[in-house]
Amino acid sequence: MTFKLSKLGPGLLFAGAAIGVSHLVQSTRAGAEYGWGLIWALLLINLFKYPFFQYGPRYAQVTGESLLDGYYKLGKGYLWAYFFVNLATMFTIQSAVTVVTAGLASKLFGISENIVVWCLLITLFCSVLLIIGRYKLLDKFIKIIMICLAISSILAVGFAFLKNDNTVPLNQILPNESGLLFLIAFLGWMPAPLDISIWHSIWTLEKNKTQSKKISFKETLFDFNVGYVSTTFLAVCFVGLGALVMFGTGMEFSNQGVEFAGQLIQLYTSSLGQTTYILIAVATFSTMLSTTITTLDASPRAMSKTIQLLFNKDKSYYLPWLLVLGLGTGAIFLFLLSEMGQLVQIATVLSFVTAPLYAYLNFRLILSNQMPKKYQPSQGLKILSVISLLFLSSFTIIYLLSI
User: Is residue 75's pLDDT more than 60?
Assistant: First the structure.
């Protein structure tokens, strides 16, 4: 078992990036508003997105290349499209997750209530951690974070079951017109946007560089499955917390991440007791810190690789892009914090509507002649991929017609 644990890394980084606002805010809100009624949607979307996320590490491990290399071979236009979409979204997404992390840090540590100061401190801390330790330190750090997150979340749900005196309905429901947009957002961001599969392929290659012996294909899939199952399990935990603690209270939640996080902790502690304050605060802070640091690492890696491919360069541009992302995020905190809601909405829409494209490209690559037949997906996984691609495409069309 120790051997297996030593091979884990990219899958947990994927989990760290995925388990963020989608879990803390969306999953908890789903439980608060619908009880256990949307578990069917959570499990269904995790099933449908599974193949396309798995193809990232599968492709990287077999070919020794990232998905970005594959996109480039399919057509340079695909890579240019990725470059501009990522450039348009990475600053606002990084800012959004950092703001929520800062709000939680303020409540957990109580040193200062100035959100801008906390945002800048967290960005600086994560940047220094990545500059000093690079992938190796990130790999170790994320394991500690994920263990803290898993333990605190399980304990929190356990306390909620013991403290809850009300019956939460288990019947599954389909929201009416007023709840349809929330369902679409819930499905779209669970467990994460599909472009994270690109990050996962890059982390897989980085993990192999740190090992004296190359990780096997089976170990790569095992690592991915551990991370993916973790994201699904913890999403159910957060739905459960919302259902057991918030369902039926009639409380109206803020749409702002920081205010929502404060309401979340306060409502938990008022229902479960002040003795659980640290437990709840650590669980939520761990959730967002893992997302903050993994997204801060991943975007510069992806942009560096994209530049290398587009301009045929061998030089790494990771540190320059890390600096650009850090400075750009800081500028948003200082000058555009009041516009955060609109910026995030633009970023999330762009990421969401490109999901079918990423799904198609990943599926096409995994069936290309670059992948030996023995490493291509099974017939069952191919059938699931086709069904899932049709679902995601239809889902995106419905979303675009609804806005």
Answer: yes
- N-to-C CA span, the chain: 49
3-state secondary structure of 314: coil
CATH code for the domain in which residue 256 is found: 1.20.1740.10
Interatomic CA distance for residues 191 and 22, integer angstroms: 7
Q: How many domains does the chain have?
A: 1
In terms of Cα–Cα distance, which of 120, 18, 113 is closest to 328?
120
* Domain encompassing residue 163: 2-402
Specify whether the CB–CB gap between 269 and 281 falls below 8 A. no
* Length of the chain as a residue count: 403
Phi, psi of 388 (to 5 degrees): -65, -40
Tokens in use for 11?
Answer: 């899958």
* DSSP string over 142-191: HHHHHHHHHHHHHHHHHHHHHH--SPPP-------HHHHHHHHHHHHTSS
10 Å CB burial of residue 291 (0-12, 13-18, 19+) is buried
Tell me the two tokens of residue 195: 């472009």
Instruction: Please state, for a pLDDT cut of 90, what percent of the chain lies above it.
Output: 32
Tokens of 121: 């401190």
Q: What is the pLDDT of residues 353-402, one digit of tens each?
A: 888 999 999 999 999 998 999 999 999 999 999 999 999 998 888 777 77
CA 352 to the chain's CA centroid = 13
